[in-house]
Amino acid sequence: MLEVYPKELNEAAEALRKGGIVAFPTDTVWGVLARLEDEAACRRIYALKGREETKPLQVLVADLESALRLADLGPLEARFLRLAEAFWPGGLTLVVPGKGIPPWISQDGSVGLRMPAHDLLRALLRRLGGYAAATSLNRSGEPPVRTETEARGFPLDYVFPGEAGGLASSVVDLRTGKVLREGAIPKEALLPYLQDA
Description:
By secondary structure, the protein is of the alpha/beta class. The protein has a single domain, classed as Alpha-Beta Complex (DHBP synthase), CATH 3.90.870.10. It is built from seven helices and nine strands.
């Protein structure tokens, strides 16, 4: 799969390294990415969406090791690892206490982590050090973008070709054990993993 888009992967990574924002068709919905450390690029995402800056951005990770570098799990570690083993890579975002998460990603220091089930996207994340800030590509309050043609209607630095999976990720806040959003993974599938082991 990776050999199909070597040029596009290079171009997307270069755009992000130069401070750009990039649209990518993920395994859930179309997303918009920026380097997590790049405050200006992340703020462009907020402006693009018309999003309140109090609402955090998600962080997509290439692998479990990258996720663990950004998470301060403590007593949540066993539950986090059970959920990650069961549903990653895939459509599950896990909200946990963060480690060194900048305020333009999350104002309370938490972080929503997801490992996408998309080989090309994980390859791009590896080129960026293992992770990137992300959120759905749409104006806030409107449905996520469904097609590459729609994605190209936004003021972006690069649009990766392809089609997205469909449903947004399910979101679990491990600090409270609550399912915040039911999406690609049904709530009933998640609940057994939120009980005490």
